[in-house]
Design brief:
Layout: E1 8-13, H1 16-27, E2 31-36, E3 41-43, E4 48-50, H2 53-60, E5 65-66, H3 74-82, E6 87-91, H4 98-101, E7 108-112, H5 124-130, E8 135-142, E9 152-159, H6 166-189, H7 211-214, H8 222-231, E10 238-242, E11 245-256, E12 266-268, E13 274-277, E14 281-290, E15 296-297, H9 298-304
Parallel strand pairs: 1-2, 1-6, 2-5, 6-7
Antiparallel strand pairs: 3-4, 7-8, 8-9, 10-11, 11-14, 12-13, 13-14, 14-15
Helix pairs in contact: 1-6, 5-8
């Protein structure tokens, strides 16, 4: 049994979601010997190099940072080996080659945004909301060859509210996941965790979100359209075509009743509401973005829009 704070940890992550986990480990007194994150990328009008959210945090907290272009690069592998990690932690990073995940003696731990084996893949939060799930959670597991298939260490579930968006779940999950990760590292150090293989049944996949996924099919029941909008908000956004322009809907409400209009047709008073006909009800657009314009409320949009 070791004091979990003495474990040498290499942390791998890139977006803001991963910062909560890194911060939790730092605040718990863990020994972070290195942080691996994506290379700086040009962004914005001036194409200035932008650091990842994880790099910004690491630099502010005087942590060693490595930013490999290629994870099989011999120079990177040598630098990683020299960090002499006992365990590696991965949160929202890219796929690792075996030579990386198998390097430390205690292996590599991944934090995943679902209750595995449900929602394996790149977009677990989005698909759980799109599919109308009432519950989701986080899983820590040991990395192995096939993506998101390794032995489970710990899980924690929490409810998905009827009006929660993917963004709401993301924000809850990053905090719950950060706490679970600290608990996992402590359990590994104290040798109190038993690995358990993932069940072979109940597997659901959560592939990357593509443009086709985001296009609203108004011939679906209003609940399904509503869930699609929630599951793609705030990014990348569900959309339809309004007068030949992309019209994204980020927030909506449902109204029961059988519309007299064909599916996909809309009604508006030009001031306060814009609603679209579905098979079994109306979908009211509440927060939208018309192609080429900024995000706005429906009343702001209607104030300045002229329907053809």
């Amino acid at each position: 049994m070791k004091d979990f704070r003495s474990l040498r940890i290499v942390f791998m992550g890139t977006p803001e979601f991963a910062v909560a986990s890194l911060d939790a480990l730092v605040k718990a007194g863990c020994t972070i010997v290195g942080v691996i994150t994506a290379p700086d990328k040009p962004a914005g009008r001036g194409l200035q190099l932008q650091q990842s959210a994880v790099k910004k945090y690491a630099v502010e907290n005087n942590l060693t940072v490595l930013q490999p272009e290629k994870l099989k690069d011999p120079a990177f592998l040598e630098s990683l080996k020299n960090l002499q990690a006992d365990v590696q932690v991965v949160v929202a990073f890219r796929m690792l080659p075996e030579m990386v995940w198998n390097m430390p003696p205690m292996g590599t731990i991944n934090l995943h945004g679902s209750l595995l084996p449900r929602y394996r893949g790149a977009a677990p939060i989005n698909w759980a909301v799109i599919n109308g799930e009432k519950e989701t959670g986080v899983t820590t597991f040991k990395l192995q060859h096939e993506i998101d298939t390794g032995n489970i260490l710990l899980q924690e579930s929490f409810p998905i509210g009827e009006n929660d968006s993917a963004g709401d779940i993301h924000d809850k999950m990053k905090m719950i996941g950060a706490e679970l990760l600290v608990k996992t590292i402590r359990g590994l150090a104290e040798n109190t965790l038993a690995e358990s293989p993932q069940p072979a049944d109940d597997i659901i996949h959560a592939p990357k979100i593509h443009t086709d996924t985001c296009r609203i099919n108004w011939s679906m029941p209003v609940d399904k359209v509503y869930n699609l909008i929630r599951g793609l908000s705030p990014y990348p956004g569900a959309f339809c075509i309004l007068n030949e322009k992309m019209f994204k809907i980020y927030k909506a409400s449902k109204e029961p009743g059988l519309p007299a209009l064909p599916e996909g047709e809309y009604e508006t008073d030009g001031k306060t509401f814009l609603r679209f006909a579905c098979t079994d009800g109306w979908l009211h657009a509440l927060e939208i973005q018309l192609e080429g314009k900024k995000k706005m409320t429906i009343t702001e949009f209607l104030r300045g829009y002229r329907f053809s």
